[in-house]
Amino acid sequence: MKKLYKLFWGICFIFGGIGVLERLIVGKKLLNLGSYITWGLWVSLYIYLVGISSGAYLFSSLISFLGLRHFEKLKRICLLTSLVALSSALLTIVLDLGHWERFWYVFIYPAPSSMMSWMVWLYSAYFLLVLLQIIYTFRDSKKKAHILAMIGLPLAIAIPVCGGSLFGVIGARPYWHSAMFPIIFLFEALLSGISLITLISIILGFAGQDDEGLFNILPRLILGLLIVNITLEAAVLAVPLWGQVAYHIQAVKLVLFGPFWWVFWLVHLGLGSAIPLFLLLGKANLNKLSFASGLIALTFMSVRLNIVIPALAIPELKGLESAFIEKRLMFSYVPSFHEWQVSLFIVTLAVGLFYLGMKLLPALEIRKSG
Questions:
Q1: Number of domains observed in the structure of the chain
Q2: Contact 164, 185 (CB under 8 A)
Q3: Which of 126, 190, 308, 330 makes the best surface tag, with the fewest CB within 10 Å?
Q4: How far is CA 249 from the centre of its chain?
C-alpha cells in the first residue's frame, strides 16, 4: 500500500513539476488573471498555507507558554508542519510574483507605513525562528527551545494579524475594509492549524499511546474554535447585508449567490462547518475526530478563495466592466488548468517535505517523542 501511495505522489509531483517548468519558461501568460483581478488561486493557496503554518506554530508556543503537558508530544509535529507549510507558502507567492529579482527591494528600501513591508519583515524573522526552534527541539536542547517558544509567541500572533490587516487596511475594497479581519485571520489560523495537526497525529498513531487523554481534549478545542470562527464570519457577512449599502454588499452577495455559490454553501458551510459540528457535538471517537478535523483542514481553502477573489470581482467604478472588452480586462475569474497544475505541485511538495522531515531530522521518533 505504501508503494501505491508513493507512486501516486510521484505522478502528482512530476505532473505538477511540468507546470512549474512552464511557469519558469513562459512567465504568467498561462494564468487567467488580468488587470482587474490580479490575485487568484495561488495567492489564496499562499494565505491558506501561511494560516496553517502560523496556527501550528502558535499552538506549539501556547503549549510551552501555558505548560500544557497533555499536548507536549504534539510540539514536534507542530514545528515540522509549520516549517513545511511556511516554505510551501513562500514558494507559492514567489511563483505568483511578476519580478522575482526585485524581492530584495523591501529590505533595501524599507517603507514602515506599508503593511506589505511589515509582512515581509515578520515572515523573514518567523522563518528563522521556526528553523532555529526545530534545530534545538530535535537536539533536545529544551531550555533554548523554550526560550525561542516564548519569543515566538507574540510573533506567531502577529503573523495572522498582519495578514488580516493587509486586507483590512484597503479602503478601496469595502469587502476587505474591516477591523474584524485581523481577528478573524488569527482564529482561522488556529482552527486550520490545530485541525491539521490533529489529523496528522491520528494518522501517525498517536491515539494508540494516549495516556494523557489528549484525544478527549482536542475535539472540544476544535469545536470551540469552529464555533468562534462561524460567529465571526457570520458577523462579517451579516452586518453589510443588514446595512444595505449597495457597494458594500456586492461582494457579499457574490460570495453567497454568485456563480460560485457552492464554494461557500456546499464546500465551506456544508463540508467544512456543518458536518464537523455534527460530528464533534456528539460523543467523540477517533473516527469522528479524524473525519471532522480532516474536513475542516482541507476545505479551509474555500475560505481563502472567498476572501481573495470576490472583492476584486467588483468594479471600483460603475460601468467599468463594459468600458473595455478584452480578455485581461474582465471581472470574472476561473483558475486555469496551469494554475491548478502548479498548485498540485505545491501540495505534493509539502507532503514530500513533511515525509522527508520525519525521516531525516535527528532523533525524530515522532511516535515516541514528548
A1: 1
A2: yes
A3: 330
A4: 25
